[in-house]
Specification:
homodimer, mainly alpha, three-stranded mixed sheet, 21 helices, 3 strands, 64% helix, 2% strand, globular
Chain lengths: 500, 500
């Protein structure tokens, strides 16, 4: 045991150092690297990927993992959880033939460019062949990894969110479909009366930066252990707890975009930064899962960031920076704008209420694509049909419909559902949090320290040392229950839109 | 042969990928990394350093290098040069006992902080013990690496500039001492009459950035394969030819500082960026030596950047940006400021003419420290004595004297002389260039393309595939001759200071 544990830890230490370096290089690529560097960079990173693969598949390491897996009952909770995950990863590495890996890398090296071109040309046909190859690959990928417990699309769902399968997601989305689709229709019919012309005025990047720094500080982002920069698309990158970074993108004519980006990304960042130091040297020093991570970013973005008390507290500052543009804009008007509901085509621009319907649509299509009940050639038609069903508007361009997201071009099937699941987790946490602290009173304060501390104590500190299901139990005292999400949305938007 | 060549190339490819990644992480550390990340980063990079060491000292790699070294006559020029250098590095790795390496790493992990504190307190005593340990280590280091050809301080000199020894440097510095020390005295006695009060006005960082971007473009820095950012101290970092980066630091009250930083660093960057693509996969895809690199940065900074025609061409733009501050400043006045000569204490702030005297002082002291003819306890006294001899002014504070540079605290002995040597190389290149192109006419043009092309063709493209001596022969058609440097300086400053 002692010997295997030492071997395992030795290899873990090495792998973590590689992941660390690769993350820094990745950050550099997304933020400042010049466009002409990527061919060479790809080559060099390819060599490093081979080095990592050699370590991951080293006989001694595999033996140690297998030994520890067989003796997992003797390990402490955190390590047992880690070993089970490592064993899963290892099996994956060993079950998929090397040639498939190589072929898929070749496929994915050009697929996102082909997708981008097709999107630009609004022509799904131009992406169809490539997507067909990707779907075929994912179907084979599933076959390689299927077990008695995990079959079909569940293999992919479990990769992104351990423990979530078609059964659970169906329950989740069925509830959303039943409750939210009709509710959204009501909200859209009712409508809201407010001035939104000011929102598309020009807001100087310099001023937007100031506002972003302000909210970063309100949410208590630790500037000694992280930075904020610009990138094409906002993201968070954590290199362990000591260095967690966020990016924002500034659009001159969309001043809300950078505000909600910085709040969203800070949510991710707080999670990464507040994992317990005891987990530093393990693979658990990050978020527990995709949805758990998204639950934190959405908690900050929507539950805090679009809250009436929170905005009432901070609107005066926003107004003081954007003096001219917001001169005649009342808080009530601003609050309505921030929480406006619209039937819109683009997921990433959707409001809090309609967002899960966008995700549901993708989930339904993925499920059918993976079990073969629809084929790629029918995808656009199916997309547009479902979209009309949920939103009551007709998709006119592929770039507004089936081609809008990058995910499928990179082979990410099973990822989308975690976005909606994260929002649902967040609402369940909110419910639990309210039993311990006076949430609305906290939002009237200078910063969110007390709220942060609750999330740290109940979620963040555990990092990835617990499964999402275990974490949900620890944090909320019960199993995942999507009813909290539905109740939250219907309650909030009934008030804003004065619906009985 | 075939087999050994393949093994060698395989290991080289791996090492290059590690160096690439480590350079990107290093860049990140120097530019944006948050202060709280460095403990963790040090740990992770330590693990990677071990990985690299394992590869460097792998039996197969060593055997391949030894084989290729023994058969070096059968290799092409570039590869032979590389193998000879690799063999040198290998011997170094093998000759220094592991315990010495570990002990020295511990020593250097705290030495620069101790130096910084001593400098802050203006107290050499506080650094004395640490420097004593460093000097003792370097003396032992020399002993480990001495050969029949290379003894004493020469071991260190050769590390920074292949082929340069005490003999050559003595000749070089003796000429400088003989010609420049009396000339500098004349210049300082003569003085120059111009307004310099405007130079310490406040110049907005935003404007300084604009000017830096302007000069970056004038010198044809390739923005597709490089970026410019800010850092505490300006530097250049090249990750192969496809990604070469420079940094600048903006001081609001020193507008010349950022201009000459960007020109200097672009000189380094052009060198790195224009190494022939054929050398991409080799260890020769960078500059040939410290002095050769410095020759390029100084060529741009001083020979181009402080040239009368060049400045006449670009002063109108500078003036257009700094409208208010430069309103009443004539070109003649500006030119005199840019080329003013002063007896000053700080090397990094020294002018072109007195600069080599600062370096000479350090060379003399290092030489004596290494052969034991002076000891650390006497260093401050010796520094101040020599300084008075060369500059005629008395050092009053250790931070202005013996404690001003970081180099010794990091164990860099033998480095300083390359700074002056680089300037001397540059002047010899200028002499050769003038035979091929109308240098002064080129400086009147929009950009320095034609000058760049000469340097690319004669120096840059060879990367590190030639020794500095070979490169000097290729570029100038003769051996290194410091007379060009002395002539250039005396000629230029005689004109500016109207000295017969």
């Amino acid at each position: 045991m002692e010997k295997n544990l030492n071997i395992y830890k030795q290899y873990r230490k090495r792998l973590k150092a590689y992941y660390y370096m690769m993350s820094v290089v990745g950050w550099d690529s997304e933020t400042v690297a010049p466009i002409g560097c990527f061919e060479e960079r790809g080559k060099q990173m390819g060599v490093i990927a081979e080095e990592v693969y050699k370590i991951q598949t080293d006989k001694d390491f595999i033996e140690a993992i297998n030994f520890l897996y067989d003796h997992r009952d003797e390990l402490d909770d955190a390590l047992r959880h880690e070993i089970v995950n490592q064993k899963k990863e290892l099996d994956k590495t060993l079950k998929i033939p090397m040639q498939e890996i190589i072929d898929s890398q070749i496929l994915f090296s050009s697929s996102s460019n082909i997708w981008a071109q097709a999107k630009k040309d609004n022509d799904f046909k131009k992406f169809e062949d490539t997507l067909e190859k990707i779907v075929q690959f994912k179907r084979r990928y599933i076959k390689y990894l299927e077990t008695d417990e995990l079959k079909g699309y569940n293999v992919l769902l479990d990769e992104f969110e351990e423990g979530m399968s078609i059964k659970e997601y169906d329950q989740f989305f069925n509830l959303l479909r039943e409750k939210l689709v009709p509710f959204v229709k009501k909200v859209l019919e009712k409508g809201n009366d407010f001035n939104k012309e000011f929102a598309s005025k020009k807001y100087k990047v310099e001023d937007q930066k100031k506002i972003c720094e302000y909210f970063r500080d309100v949410l208590c982002f630790d500037k000694n252990h992280g930075i904020m920069m610009e990138s094409e698309h906002p993201f968070t990158s954590g290199f362990g707890q000591s260095d967690v970074r966020i990016t924002v993108h500034y659009y001159e004519k969309e001043f809300l975009s950078s505000i909600y980006s910085v709040i969203h990304e800070t949510g991710h960042a707080l999670y990464e930064a507040n994992v317990s130091d005891e987990l530093s040297d393990t693979f658990a020093n990050g978020g527990a899962s995709m949805a758990m991570h998204e639950s934190q970013s959405r908690f900050y973005e929507n539950i805090i960031g679009r809250d009436e008390n929170f905005l009432k507290k901070h609107y005066p500052y926003i107004k003081s920076v954007y003096k001219k543009n917001l001169k005649d804009v009342s808080f009530e008007n601003f609050y309505k704008l921030v929480n406006k509901v619209e039937a819109s085509f683009i997921r990433t621009e959707a409001d809090e209420l309609t967002y899960p319907l966008h995700v549901m649509l993708r989930y339904e299509l993925e499920k059918k694509l993976m079990d073969g009940s629809i084929e790629v050639k029918d995808l656009e038609k199916e997309w547009n049909k479902l979209f009309y069903e949920y939103f009551g508007i007709k998709v006119k361009k592929a770039s507004q419909g089936v081609l809008q997201d990058v995910h499928w071009s990179g082979g990410s099937f099973g990822y989308f559902p975690t976005y909606a699941l994260g929002s649902a987790y967040a609402c369940q946490f909110l419910n639990a949090m309210k039993k311990d602290i006076d949430f609305e009173e906290e939002l009237k304060k200078e910063n969110t320290l007390v709220i942060n501390e609750w999330l740290i104590e109940k979620i963040h500190k555990y990092g990835a040392s617990k499964s999402p299901k275990e974490l949900m139990m620890i944090a909320s005292g019960e199993e995942f229950n999507p009813q909290y999400y539905v109740d939250y949305l219907i309650d909030k938007y009934s008030k804003i839109y004065s619906i009985e």
